[in-house]
Amino acid sequence: MTTTKYKRVLLKLSGEAFGGKADYGIDSPTLTMIAKQIRQVIEMGVGVGIVVGGGNIWRGAKAEQNGMDRVTADYAGMLATVINALALQDALEREGITTRTQSAIGVQQVAEPYIRRRAIRHLEKGRAVIFAGGTGNPYMTTDTAAALRAIEIEAEVLLMTKNNVDGIYSADPSKNHSAKKFDKLTHLEALNMRLEVMDATALSLCLENKLPIIVFDLRAPRSIERAIIGEPIGTLVSSGKEND
Predict the structure, then answer these.
(1) What is the helix (H) or strand (E) element at residue 192, kind and residue range?
(2) Which domain holds residue 210?
(3) How many CB atoms lie within 10 A of CB 66?
(4) Average pLDDT score over residue span 42-65
């Protein structure tokens, strides 16, 4: 059996990851690809918690620009993450992985409420746990939810997946071909350089709790597995002392 560097991880999947190459909705082949990768690492004995975004279904910022109340728009976005969570749960269960979805907002007919101790127990039993509903609060992104849940479940690393971007760059590589890719950064460097790793609240949480982050391209072959076994992939953001 392959030796893993991490025994418990938090995987952040953006809403765009669910859409594949489309701008909207859920792409079934992409969902199956994600589920197969997650199944592979769970079978390696790794506990996997997953935070999902909802940008493939709802964009709260755009709705606010069109005049919608910000709080209402954010709650609508939380419901979009529940849809993605249920789709991922179904895909994982079709792969034979027992899965539980926990939501930070009340949707008892389709998901458990978020309870930290119950989530940890599920992970100890080898189940995948999907965290939906963000933090349950408006004005908070799913990046912040990912950092918070990672700390709460005592994950050893936060895996931030990107679509067709293989790490953190000094500028948008799709617009600036001279953008420099970083192999390693400290949390403080990422904050000071205002790099688009995640929002500042989430990054500050990781900094304060010394939680390393690996940013990588989800579509790269065996990307999640490679991150978990410690292969160099994407960009590592850490305190500068661990995970070197």
Answers:
(1) helix 187-192
(2) 8-238
(3) 9
(4) 92
